[in-house]
Amino acid sequence: GQNIDQPTEMTATEGAIVQINCTYQTSGFNGLFWYQQHAGEAPTFLSYNVLDGLEEKGRFSSFLSRSKGYSYLLLKELQMKDSASYLCAVRAGSSNTGKLIFGQGTTLQVKP
Amino acid sequence: DVKVTQSSRYLVKRTGEKVFLECVQDMDHENMFWYRQDPGLGLRLIYFSYDVKMKEKGDIPEGYSVSREKKERFSLILESASTNQTSMYLCASSLRGGGFNYGYTFGSGTRLTVV
């Protein structure tokens, strides 16, 4: 079966660093995505990993280990506006159809 | 600014009604998707289409159908709405090949309540 696990909720302090983990078991792997979703809004793209290692983009970084079926999203210098849900998604099937399988999402609350 | 537009932000329908949710994208994307999002369950794929007049079932197609007569438009149809179809519905699109490094572009969602 297809399974993507991430913590349901996390809390962190403004200015701190937080790591959101994602583990996956899928039949096939063709890339892992992280999206950010503020309450009542559409998910927006944050990062993409297809090879092992770390991808850095400003305050956000994403890491992938394909052998372990594991990824994390690292948020540095947290700001209040980072309070949102973070969705981990795997493209498991044909790269032609691009179908994504999503985890349940992690709701991050940033406190002053 | 590229867009995926869903026709309604909020809808309230009665049990047994036939409901149409419309999605239009202006990016000339081949692939289009319908998901529903429920607390604790995440996004679950209902149907997707990778070309005009083509459709494939996702993980939870029961009670739904779709139509894609034009490349830019993908419609989700609830044949006979039921209260367990109360949910947030998200439309998304991507290039063939999955939008190699950015995946999907999402619409703003339609929050459907069936009473």
Task: Write structural notes for this entry.
The complex is a heterodimer of chains A (112) and B (115). With 112 residues, chain A is mainly beta. Chain A contains no helices and eleven strands. Chain A has strands at residues 3-5, 9-13, 18-25, 32-37, 44-49, 53-57, 60-65, 70-75, 84-91, 100-102, 106-111. Chain A is globular and about 45 Å long. The N and C termini of chain A lie far apart (41 Å). Chain B is globular, with a radius of gyration of 13 Å. In chain B, the strands form two sheets. In chain B, strands 2, 4, 5, 6, 9, 10 and 11 form a seven-stranded mixed β-sheet that branches. A four-stranded antiparallel β-sheet of chain B has the order 1-3-8-7, with no helix packed on it. Chain B is mainly beta. Classes of the chains: A mainly beta (112), B mainly beta (115).
Shape of chain A: globular
Largest sheet of chain A: 6 strands, mixed
Query: Average pLDDT across residues of chain A?
Result: 92
Binned strand content of chain A: over 45%
Largest sheet composition of chain B? 7 strands, mixed
Greatest contact between two chains: A-B, 27 and 31 residues
Task: Let me know the number of strands of chain A.
Answer: 11
